[in-house]
Design a protein that fits this description.
Elements (H helix, E strand, L loop, with lengths): L2 H24 L5 H23 L10 H22 L5 H8 L2 H13 L5 H18 L10 H24 L5 H31 L3 H29 L1 H6 L4 H12 L6 H17 L19
Helix pairs in contact: 1-4, 1-9, 1-11, 2-3, 2-8, 2-9, 3-7, 3-8, 4-11, 5-6, 5-7, 6-12
Length: 304
Amino acid sequence: MKGKPYAALVLAMIFWSFSFVWFKIANRSYEPITIVFIRLCMSIVFLSLFLWITGKFTRIRKGDRRYFFLLALFEPFLYFLGESFGLTYVSSTVGSVIISTIPVFAVIFAFVLFREKLKLINYLGVIVSFIGVLIFITNSSGNITLDPKGLLLMFLAVVSATGYNMVLFRLASDYDPVTIVNIQNIIGAVLFLPLFLIFDLKGLLATGIVTESFGAIVLLAIFASCGAFVLFAYAVRHLGISRANIFSNLIPVFTAVLAFLIVGDRITLRNGVGMIVVIAGLFLSQARKKRAAIVDTDFAGRTA
């Protein structure tokens, strides 16, 4: 039993790392909104089936409906708009590194909104992570080497996921995690539906089913949106959210390897150094505190 939660965590991180690569494959034939909408619809079917089989359907209290709407607005709606369009401008590896800074932004938001006081080492971790990101996205002359649109969109995803965590803190103790994700995906699909119908439906009908790209969307729905979440929830149940959340720092490493092997992303020495600095900063920013902080309530964009 002791080793199973850790094995589940590593497998969940691998699935979430694959998601950046699978998106790139899906994006060869389909537009970002199409990918997200189909992925959400599939995940709703899978999660609803899971809840039906386990008999865990839960009634949402009237007073909590506004929180669920805000939750879905942050994620999946704004988060996936930022991430999906951002990944059309940056590589899978760059995207995963930027997304991995979500815990860092959670530390900042927790202090600003809730005056959550952390250890000095946590704030040092925030600074170190930002330095790592700067190393990763600049060249030796200090110029940014990436498309500014891609960076802004990816950071929109980061800020949205951080807002999601703040709202999730309000709901996490009252509802089953699978229920929360299923409801937010249902609301998210409704929010994406008009965009899909207006901008992407015609293109989807013209493109039809492209086996490799559509298969990547199915993989995103099954493994990234459902399988990884169930594994993560299982690990949290046995290890706690604080210890489980630290494993998210492995995602950029796994993504870099997978992107190199599958889609041919290149990693320079400077990129490698920047990645190491980012991950080191993440570990520092998430060093254990005397009590559980809101930043530890992290199901982030990876779960939707």
